[in-house]
């Protein structure tokens, strides 16, 4: 294959990824006229307006929802990492207490997920309804991540752990001083999995959060994107409001950008992290 | 045109879950929702409101009152708050972006002050209604007021099987509070037309307060400015002339087509042929639209017109932006509800030249105008049920509803819809024009708890208001209702299976029009429709028609 062909192919692939995103950003800053002329999706706006962003950010709903999502993501990811790491490490050590039954439980959770109603009743009985914990706690341990992490821990050379023990380290010390520093790559990847999951939390928030003040950004986003009209059934004379498409695209930008910012920092661990542990299941 | 109901995996699951639960909670009252019981219900006595005089008066058959400008100054109807303090909770839906929470929402705070209660709202996006409602039932921690279901375009509550049984167990029969003359205690509720109340009748009682809508449903809007500019006669006298008109205005090179989609053609042509509005009840036989020859003929003609290129080529895409095409002049005919009128004015780029009007549909072979179908959802957008409570509490809640149903032209209506002058809107050209804060803060969904009778009012466009009114006055007297909706019938099977049955019809119709299936596929559709529940629905409804003695 010639270089030129490779270049063209790569450019095409890049364009496939970049053009839609560019369109989202461009449409979000377009005027109604541009949007209607371009059939709803603008690539090069003739005139730039930030009216859609102003409309989104002045209402107070979206900034608040972003705050809620950031909180849920940070706290949830931290809790998830702690719980998953501890569980996976315990399960990776042969002979640990309740090893088999707990492992079976984890595998069962992988195979069977609770239905909407049982999940709701459990959350409700625990008194978690209308709290952020309702979104965080049911998702705090993901069985898939436990299995990956456990496989990684099992691959660690047992000589390392034995030498730590000979040097007098307790189980806790071994875990914190030896195992965790060796697991940075896999932890950052699993952390990213969790973070993306929490950031995208939509369905659990819909079910468990009645108070719309507590809604995370994805749920708020959905009310903007899915509803065809800005004002519901009865439209009124509102010629000076930003067009619906610009609003939809602006909120997409608002919801994508924060999680996109994390990627570059985690990416260097990504390939290694996923492969490590994947080959030995 | 009413969009076909879509069913996703999630709504299906949620619907099934809700259905299961509802079965469990309502088994003891399974036979209360009978045709006999519902026939003799003491409906609220209709007393039209005299608080505000419309510019153009409506008629008892269903033509809506029309207002050329918002009455100035607005009439103040209430001198005291209807509530006595305490909290009122409600489960409502919204079709708008979620509003700011109460702490940040001056409109909501002012609403609380005016209502005299602390209004706690569980606001649910309308697309997620079925899921959220099923969890609400599962949790059994019901709010005071509940919007239990959306009405599908077929006029029955959607996705919730055994709804009547659930209502019998958990909700209040309002008949003794609002039946007959009792409703006079709540004059704004008394002004809601009887047809709307009829759709709240279950288990032999009035189980909800309605959000009324006009019976004039979907109409065909036409871009007069563009069609006139092309020198084409916009008033065809027969199907042949209609097709000719479509040919003349279509120019694919200029990115311009006659129709936004083929679905509207099936809708129009069936009316030209005198087809069934969803169902036809004649000579003791109930026939569904898909089984009629008019349907087959309409699909055949629509397919031919699509093949000829008279329809926007991208219209089969889900969520095709049909309104935008119409606004941009890419398509010149669109079927939509009368409520869409103001939106077309707001969202076009033709400027002052923009002109639209409703097209009168001719009969197929010429010689007169076709009878127009009434709204398929009947006279009600949805209704709201009341959690079981003592009589005093129910009366308090009804007073609140009375306030929330203050008619157009009152100060209360203006506040409820638009907020406070200056803060949320300004008056321009005889109408309120909301600002961004107004749009965001007022979208609480309270308009789906209960509402005043609809009116025709296009802010700042008195000439359009008059057009809309004249159109309704012309078509309503001999318009064709959906007999199932008009009879106030309910079938669990219909409620549950409607998405599936509707899917068979709309998918099959699209397949034929797009050329993926031959016209003979209609027979296959009919067979599927019957086998997958249609026959059972027919049995259910037929029995009710016979019991009710409807000819």
UniProtKB/TrEMBL annotation, chain A:
<dbReference type="GO" id="GO:0005886">
    <property type="term" value="C:plasma membrane"/>
</dbReference>
<comment type="similarity">
    <text>Belongs to the binding-protein-dependent transport system permease family.</text>
</comment>
<keyword id="KW-1003">Cell membrane</keyword>
<keyword id="KW-1133">Transmembrane helix</keyword>
<protein>
    <submittedName>
        <fullName>ABC transporter permease</fullName>
    </submittedName>
</protein>
<feature type="transmembrane region" description="Helical">
    <location>
        <begin position="133"/>
        <end position="153"/>
    </location>
</feature>
<feature type="transmembrane region" description="Helical">
    <location>
        <begin position="102"/>
        <end position="121"/>
    </location>
</feature>
<keyword id="KW-0812">Transmembrane</keyword>
<keyword id="KW-0472">Membrane</keyword>
<feature type="transmembrane region" description="Helical">
    <location>
        <begin position="246"/>
        <end position="266"/>
    </location>
</feature>
<dbReference type="InterPro" id="IPR035906">
    <property type="entry name" value="MetI-like_sf"/>
</dbReference>
<dbReference type="InterPro" id="IPR000515">
    <property type="entry name" value="MetI-like"/>
</dbReference>
<keyword id="KW-0813">Transport</keyword>
<dbReference type="GO" id="GO:0055085">
    <property type="term" value="P:transmembrane transport"/>
</dbReference>
<dbReference type="Pfam" id="PF00528">
    <property type="entry name" value="BPD_transp_1"/>
</dbReference>
<feature type="transmembrane region" description="Helical">
    <location>
        <begin position="66"/>
        <end position="90"/>
    </location>
</feature>
<feature type="transmembrane region" description="Helical">
    <location>
        <begin position="185"/>
        <end position="209"/>
    </location>
</feature>
<feature type="domain" description="ABC transmembrane type-1">
    <location>
        <begin position="66"/>
        <end position="262"/>
    </location>
</feature>
Automatic annotation (TrEMBL), chain B:
<dbReference type="Pfam" id="PF01547">
    <property type="entry name" value="SBP_bac_1"/>
</dbReference>
<protein>
    <submittedName>
        <fullName>Lipoprotein</fullName>
    </submittedName>
</protein>
<dbReference type="InterPro" id="IPR006311">
    <property type="entry name" value="TAT_signal"/>
</dbReference>
<keyword id="KW-0449">Lipoprotein</keyword>
<dbReference type="InterPro" id="IPR006059">
    <property type="entry name" value="SBP"/>
</dbReference>
């Amino acid at each position: 294959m010639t270089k030129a062909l490779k270049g063209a192919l790569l450019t095409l692939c890049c364009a496939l990824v970049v053009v839609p995103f560019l369109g989202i950003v461009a449409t979000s800053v377009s005027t109604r006229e541009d949007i209607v002329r371009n059939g709803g999706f603008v690539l090069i706006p003739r005139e730039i307006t930030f009216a859609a962003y102003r409309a989104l950010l002045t209402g107070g709903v979206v900034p608040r929802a972003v705050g809620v999502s950031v909180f849920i993501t940070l706290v949830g990811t931290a809790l998830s990492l702690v719980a998953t790491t501890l569980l996976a490490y315990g399960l990776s050590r042969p002979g640990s207490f309740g090893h088999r039954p707990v492992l079976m439980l984890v595998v069962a959770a992988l195979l069977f997920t609770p239905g909407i109603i049982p999940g709701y009743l459990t959350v409700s009985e625990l008194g978690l309804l209308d709290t952020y914990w309702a979104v965080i706690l049911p998702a705090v341990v993901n069985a898939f991540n436990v299995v990956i992490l456990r496989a990684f821990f099992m691959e660690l050379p047992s000589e390392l752990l034995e030498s730590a023990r000979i040097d007098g380290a307790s189980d806790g010390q071994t875990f914190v001083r030896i195992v965790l520093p060796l697991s940075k790559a896999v932890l950052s990847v699993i952390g990213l999995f969790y973070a993306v999951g929490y950031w995208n939390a939509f369905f659990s928030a819909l079910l468990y959060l009645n108070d719309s003040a507590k809604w995370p950004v994805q749920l708020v986003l959905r009310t903007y994107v899915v509803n065809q009209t800005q004002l519901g059934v009865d439209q009124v004379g509102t010629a000076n409001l930003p067009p619906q498409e610009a609003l939809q695209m602006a909120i997409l930008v608002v919801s994508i950008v924060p999680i996109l910012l994390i990627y570059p920092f985690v990416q260097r661990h990504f390939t290694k992290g996923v492969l490590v542990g994947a080959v030995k299941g | 045109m009413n969009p076909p109901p879509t069913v996703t995996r999630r709504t299906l699951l949620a619907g099934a879950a809700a259905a299961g639960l509802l079965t469990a909670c309502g088994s003891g009252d399974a036979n209360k929702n009978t045709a006999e019981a519902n026939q003799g219900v003491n409906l609220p006595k209709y007393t039209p409101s005299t608080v505000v005089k419309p510019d153009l008066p409506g008629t008892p058959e269903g033509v809506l009152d029309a207002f050329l400008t918002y009455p100035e100054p607005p009439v103040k109807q209430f001198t005291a708050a209807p509530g006595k303090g305490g909290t009122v909770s409600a489960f409502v839906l919204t079709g708008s972006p979620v509003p700011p929470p109460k702490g940040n929402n001056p409109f909501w705070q002012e609403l609380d002050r005016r209502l005299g209660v602390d209004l706690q709202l569980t606001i649910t996006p309308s697309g997620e209604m079925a899921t959220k409602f099923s969890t609400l039932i599962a949790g059994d921690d019901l709010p005071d007021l509940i919007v239990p279901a959306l009405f599908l375009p077929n006029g029955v509550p959607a996705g919730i099987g055994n709804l009547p049984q659930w209502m019998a167990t958990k909700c209040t029969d309002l008949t003794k509070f609002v039946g007959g003359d009792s409703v006079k205690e709540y004059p704004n509720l008394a002004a809601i037309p009887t047809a709307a109340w009829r759709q709240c009748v279950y288990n032999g009682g009035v189980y909800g307060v309605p959000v009324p809508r006009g019976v004039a449903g979907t109409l065909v809007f036409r871009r007069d400015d563009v069609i006139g500019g092309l020198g084409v006669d916009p008033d065809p006298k027969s199907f042949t002339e209609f097709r000719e008109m479509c040919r003349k205005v279509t120019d694919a090179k200029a990115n311009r087509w006659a129709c936004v989609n083929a679905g509207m053609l099936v809708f129009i042509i069936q009316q030209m042929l005198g087809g069934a509005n969803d169902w036809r009840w004649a000579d003791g036989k109930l026939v569904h639209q898909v089984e009629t020859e008019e349907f087959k003929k309409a699909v055949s003609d629509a397919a031919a017109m699509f093949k000829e290129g008279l329809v926007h080529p991208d219209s089969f895409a889900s969520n095709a932006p049909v309104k935008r095409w119409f606004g941009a002049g890419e398509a010149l005919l669109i079927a939509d509800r009368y409520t869409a009128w103001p939106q077309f004015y707001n969202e076009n780029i033709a400027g002052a030249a923009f002109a639209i009007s409703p097209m009168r549909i001719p009969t197929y072979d010429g010689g007169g105008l076709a009878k127009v179908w009434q709204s398929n959802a009947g006279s009600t957008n949805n209704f709201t049920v009341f959690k079981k409570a003592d009589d005093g509490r129910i009366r308090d809640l009804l007073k609140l509803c009375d306030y929330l149903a203050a008619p157009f032209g009152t100060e209360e209506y203006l506040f409820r819809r638009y907020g406070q002058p200056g803060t949320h809107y300004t008056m321009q050209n005889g109408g309120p024009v909301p600002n961004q804060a107004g749009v965001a803060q007022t979208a609480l969904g309270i308009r789906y708890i209960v509402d005043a009778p609809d009116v025709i009012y296009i802010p700042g466009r008195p000439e359009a208001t008059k057009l809309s009114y004249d159109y309704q006055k012309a078509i309503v007297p001999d318009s064709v209702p959906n007999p199932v909706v008009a009879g106030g019938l309910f079938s669990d099977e219909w409620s549950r299976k409607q998405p599936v049955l509707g899917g068979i019809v709309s998918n099959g119709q699209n397949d034929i029009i797009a050329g993926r299936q031959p016209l003979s596929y209609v027979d296959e559709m009919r067979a599927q429709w019957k086998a997958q529940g249609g026959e059972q629905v027919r049995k259910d409804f037929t029995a009710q028609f016979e019991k009710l003695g409807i000819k």
